[in-house]
Amino acid sequence: MQHTTAVKALKGASIFTIVMGAAAVLAVITGITQPFTFFFDAMYLPLDGQQSLGSDTELVLAAIAGGIMIGFGVMALQITNHIYTNDPALGGHILRLGLITWYLTDSTASYAAGAWINVLLNTPFLLLFLVPIQLNKTASTAQNA
Predict the structure, then answer these.
(1) 137 in helix, strand or coil?
(2) What is the DSSP string of 8-77?
(3) Stated pTM of the model
(4) Burial degree of 116 (CB within 10 A; 0-12, 13-18, 19+)
(5) DSSP class of residue 86?
(6) Would you place residue 138 in the very low, low, confident or very high pLDDT band (cuts 50, 70, 90)?
């Protein structure tokens, strides 16, 4: 993968993260929580309507998670723009370390909470970032050999 393509893919993944986080925050602010109610219900199959996003605790956790996603997306975008663009090895290392740390802790805790499906949902999200980094790293290594 060309470096410019990897940069565009990482910017896209960052913006997608920001949008997903903003959707969670807006759901809390507006009270339009139905899409997230379905999402949480899907975490604990079968789809039976038992999970919700209605209590104060659930709403504040959604707000916190959304804010963290927005913050991570902004940070990933800045790392991509100011570090990865000029130093793909360093920028890729920073992003990869953060993403793998998130993936392992989030997935392990989700599994422990009985929401094993979240591990499956986390995986494509992780790959949105890791695939461009890895393919660019592989291309750079092949060009330098």
Answers:
(1) helix
(2) HHHHHHHHHHHHHHHHHHHHHHH---HHHHHHHHHHTSS--S---S-SHHHHHHHHHHHHHHHHHHHHHH
(3) 0.88
(4) middle
(5) T
(6) low
